[in-house]
TrEMBL record:
Domain CCA-adding enzyme C-terminal positions: 265-410
Protein name: tRNA nucleotidyltransferase (CCA-adding enzyme)
Domain annotation tRNA nucleotidyltransferase/poly(A) polymerase RNA and SrmB- binding: ranges: 171-226
Keyword Endoplasmic reticulum: no
Residues covered by the Poly A polymerase head domain: 24-143
GO terms for biological process, alphabetical: tRNA processing
GO terms for MF: metal ion binding; nucleotide binding; nucleotidyltransferase activity; tRNA binding
NCBIfam families, A to Z: PRK13299.1 (NF009814)
Length: 416
């Protein structure tokens, strides 16, 4: 899908609202990223039209957040959230206002937003509405809350992590009062659903983990992301021998890795040297998916098998078969980052070459079937499974022998 097409279509939504007599503007992240000349993938629109009026104008809509004034408008190329100008009532759950009041003022609507760089709106004619100096803050490269930062974070404590994430992603610094309010309100993160914390943490890991981890430690918010994070007194215990805090190493190493969530998780957990039980606790606490937990565990298990520079040919084949290609690849890249001067391309090529010659990835790759084994004289039942496992190991020892003739001959010798 062409990004330019999405922009044109977003303006079509604005045009239709204006033609019906309402105010309408692009707002928030798309305006921020336009000013920064960054790619834009989502366009949000704010309008003076009430939700029912938006629904009446467009043939395809979904009332995704109609209680809070948001209607999703579905166009040919994309979907656009259209939200009525509003002011928020009291926040009672640390996430959403208990009530909202629709207003006719764009400035009032922008005043409820989290950070100045997200409180800008763009008209169809290119006029930037910026009552809180978001453009100035973009130019000065700072993250500054709209109005009273303590109040903003009391309304929704997740804004604390959003502020840290924006600073890390954009390479900005936290404005002084905003930074102080984050430290002051950090304990409010304990009330936030872990799924919401996880999503912000993952965005940090996938963009700028080095800066993000540094800011999380500076603002004393790390413990609300990683439960009971270990601390290190390098004068007493320096696990890596570099005289550098392992959390700093974790961020530096993760930032050097390809954008792969399981790999970056494995690097961080390896750098801070959590034992297996604590790793499981951290992953469960963050409510990671079963698939992601499995990928991280498999990667760390391969890491524990020793440096890949010492693996023999048979070891490579066994590890591919037992743990899978992805886990072996991630373990090799982790080794390259931590111990081999970041020779990622060399290790990618090594894994590719080894994988191309891999004779067996699972039992299904054996060229003989259960029926073949029964015809060869094995009884139906558990013996078939045991024979398959034995033949798989034999093929891993003799990669050229995954042929029907060779396997049946070897089985015949074993039966005799």
């Amino acid at each position: 899908m062409e990004i330019q097409t999405l922009e044109q279509e977003a303006w079509q939504v604005v045009d239709k609202l204006e033609a019906a007599g309402y105010e309408a503007y692009l707002v928030g992240g798309c305006v921020r990223d336009q000013q920064l000349q960054r790619p834009i993938y989502d366009y949000d629109i704010t309008t003076s039209a009430l939700p029912d009026e938006v629904i009446a104008l467009f043939p395809h809509t979904v009332p995704t957040g109609i209680k809070h004034g948001t209607v999703k408008v579905i166009m040919e190329q994309g979907e656009y959230e259209v939200t009525t100008f509003r002011i928020d009532g009291e926040y009672i759950d640390g996430r959403r206002p208990a009530s909202v009041h629709f207003v006719r003022s764009l400035v009032e609507d922008l005043a409820r937003r989290d950070f100045t760089i997200n409180a800008m709106a763009m008209s169809r004619h290119g006029r930037l509405h910026d009552p809180f100096d978001g453009l100035r803050d973009l130019e000065q490269r700072i993250i500054c809350a709209v109005g009273d930062p303590v109040k903003r974070f009391e309304e929704d404590a997740l804004r604390i992590l959003r502020g840290i994430r924006f600073a890390a992603q954009l390479g900005f610094t936290l404005e002084e009062r905003t930074h102080a309010a984050i430290v002051y309100e950090a304990q409010e993160l304990g009330k936030i659903a872990r799924e919401r914390v996880r999503e912000e943490w993952h965005k940090m890991l996938l963009t700028a983990p080095d800066v993000a981890l540094d800011l999380l430690r500076q603002t004393e918010t790390l413990r609300y992301v990683i439960t009971r994070p270990p601390t290190f007194d390098l004068a007493v215990y320096d696990p890596w021998g570099y005289g550098i805090d392992p959390w700093q190493l974790a961020g530096t190493w993760a930032a050097r890795a390809p954008v792969d969530l399981a790999l970056r998780y494995a690097i961080v957990l390896r750098a801070i040297q959590l034992e297996e039980a604590r790793i499981d606790k951290v992953m469960s606490d963050l409510k990671l998916s079963g698939a992601l937990k499995s990928e991280i565990r498999r990667t760390l298990r391969v890491v524990q098998l020793g440096p890949p520079t010492e693996w023999r040919d048979r070891s490579w084949r066994q590890y591919f078969y037992q743990h899978g290609r992805d886990a072996v690849r991630r373990a090799c890249l982790l080794y390259a980052i931590l111990h081999d001067e970041g020779r990622l391309e060399a290790w990618e090529a090594e894994v590719e070459q080894r994988a191309a010659a891999q004779p067996l990835w699972s039992l299904q790759d054996l060229v003989v079937t259960g029926s073949d084994l029964i015809e060869a004289g094995l009884p139906e039942g558990p013996e078939i499974g045991r024979a398959n496992q034995w033949l798989a190991q034999w093929v891993l020892d003799h990669p050229e022998c995954n042929t029907r003739e060779a396997l049946l001959q070897k089985l015949s010798e074993r039966i005799e």
